[in-house]
């Protein structure tokens, strides 16, 4: 289990690396208002909260049960695609409360969802064994451990498929975050050479 701060930093500095670079450049050029800074801090706070969302039961279990259990609500795993999908809903509700616009609410939902999925991604990298497909399957799997040549048993096709799955998982989470940010005030575009 990575530390909470690792989840937040992974989402902000790795998944949203281009956004961090954009903010950094704007700050250096002093091309950013205090209103923009407040908006960015709010986005970062929402991203950080949802990057920790699958561990949301940790506080409850420490206080009520006196354990460090952080992956279950009763018998239900919180580290699953199903549980993560609620981040989309909660993020959209927060987005609607902030912007009063349906479109921006959806993009905030996608941003929250990417943060929540980045949590599963980092936990998978750190210790493996995520119940991604609960309740369809209760089997804990690790997308990243399948990339290992040894686990693919020398079968080149298995190895390639497993590698693609892990890379596409990572790309999907990053693209979701950047797509959302692109509609929440960021501009990522190619500048044509004159
Ligand atoms: Zn976790």
From TrEMBL:
GO terms for molecular function: hydrolase activity. Keywords: Hydrolase, Membrane, Transmembrane, Transmembrane helix. It comes from the Archaea. This is LexA-binding, inner membrane-associated putative hydrolase. The keyword Transmembrane helix applies. The chain crosses the membrane at residues 6-28, 40-60, 80-99, 167-186. InterPro entries: YdjM-like.
